[in-house]
Amino acid sequence: MRLFVGDDWAEDHHDVEVMDASGRRLAKARLPEGVTGMARLHALVGEHAGDEPDDVQVLVGIETDRGPWVQALLAAGYTVFAINPLQASHYRARHAVSGAKSDAADAHVLADMVRTDAHQLRPVAGDSAAVEAVKVVTRTHKTLIWERTRHTQRLRHALRDYFPAALVAFEDLDAADTLELLAKAPTPAAAARLTLSQISAALRRARRRDVATKAAAIQAALRAAHLGQPDVVAGAYAASVRALIAVLTVLNEQVKELQGQVAEHFGQHPAAEIVLSQPGLGQVLGARVLAEFGDDPDRYTTAKARKNYAGTSPITRASGKKRTVSARFVHNDRLIDALMTQAFSSLQASPGARAYYDRQRERGANHNAALRQLANRLVGILHGCLKTGSLYDETTAWPHHVEQVAA
Questions:
Q1: What is the arithmetic mean of pLDDT over 178-203?
Q2: Which residue has the higher pLDDT, 203 or 298?
């Protein structure tokens, strides 16, 4: 016997509907978030499980794949399908074209989706706690890096508006020495008064090389004539810049702290050695790839399935005589970012990867397309290594291309 549950999750509650195999609604309820709500959900299921509850399979459709609620569903033995909201939105049109929407109706849609299309949906992977820990720290680490980039761009725009000399003097706006000097002298007038000894001290603390030459160049740039703003406006900009500098300083500290946590958690995972053996993957990038793929051994039955999840494999649209092949634009942003970075790094680390990339360019592919095809190939190689428990081997991974390079 099968029961199908649609779970429309909101910030503090869940609208659920229980449905049987014929599509008949058995129960619906609005449940609070937490232990109380989970207990009531189990009670709803139990009421319709019949005399042999151990023989009942419960399939749950929900629009998320993480959080304590999902973990509790998995712990209860339910099969959980994390449904993309875009999929649910398209499926909703099968029930009504008016555009009407409610949480209860969404719960019905989700239940019906797992009833009719469970074979087309991907169940939430049974990843280990170890890889979940890696995912938590790697995602936070990457999020902080993205935030640092955003705040650095805000700092750049502010300096362009009132202090263009700073953009000439400093190459890396988020570097420790740059932030120290801008915090000490956030206005053009104050920066022009910085001495060589003050600039040199900041460079030494940041462990820069050729301190004397760089200090002289920075001082000259800060004292050069540039267009500016009235003093009162420059003062207002300086206050804003100090705030951005404070945020960037904290972000730099926490990015460094979390990088250590990423390395620590990743190093404890059994698959770390295999992942690190892949070309272009180090501690941080390898941790991101492992975290986003997960470690459920049954999740990806074939290399193609892993490539499709990664978003590196192309999609084909064929209708009549027209056929087009294009990149996938719906994908896990964090995973595709890590894989494309790996592909670029592998150009230096692997002769086979370099030969494969050059082959794609010779066929007319641009840089991004060739890199994406290389990333797709690397995903297949990683899949083979993980399935067989083998470390990466250059000649095994690229037999044809290695022969070409040798020739």
A1: 95
A2: 203
Q: If 0-12 CB within 10 Å is exposed, 13-18 middle and 19+ buried, where does residue 378 land?
A: buried
Place of tokens 């849609």: 109
Is the confidence at residue 164, as pLDDT, over 90?
yes
Cα distances (Å, whole numbers) of residue 135 to 46, 131, 148, 361: 34, 6, 20, 34
Phi, psi of 388 (to 5 degrees): -95, -5
> Mean of the pLDDT values across residues 156-166?
95
pLDDT band of residue 51 (cuts 50, 70, 90) is low
pLDDT of the residue at 318: 72
Distance CA 289, CA 232 (A): 49
Q: Both tokens of residue 52?
A: 């042999």
The arithmetic mean of pLDDT across residues 227-246, rounded, is 94
Residue 204 has pLDDT above 90, yes or no: yes
Side-chain-side CA neighbours of 365 within 13 Å: the count stands at 18
Q: Which amino acid is at 309?
A: Y
Q: What is the mean pLDDT of residues 13-37?
A: 91
Contact indicator for 373, 365 with CB cutoff of 8 Å: yes
Which has the closest alpha carbon to 145: 40, 259, 242?
259
Quickly list DSSP for 311-373. Answer: T-S-EEEEETTEEEEE---SS-HHHHHHHHHHHHHHHHH-HHHHHHHHHHHHTT--HHHHHHH
Q: pLDDT tens-digit profile of 59-100? A: 999 988 888 888 899 888 899 998 888 888 888 877 666 666
Degrees to nearest 5, angle at CA 116 with 315 and 2: 135
Buried b / exposed e over 214-252, threshold 16 CB at 10 Å, is bbeebbebbeeeeebeeeeebeebbeebeebbebbeebb
| Cβ count near 4 (within 10 Å) | 24
CB of 396 within 8 A of CB of 324?
no
DSSP assignment string, 238-288: HHHHHHHHHHHHHHHHHHHHHHHHHHHHHHTSTTHHHHHTSTT--HHHHHH
Q: Using an 8 Å Cβ cutoff, are 214 and 203 in contact?
A: yes
pLDDT score of 189 more than 70: yes
Indicate whether this model's pTM tops 0.90.
Answer: no
Q: Are 115 and 83 in contact (CB under 8 A)?
A: no
* DSSP letter for each residue of 65-96: S-SHHHHHHHHTT-EEEE--HHHHHHHHTTT-
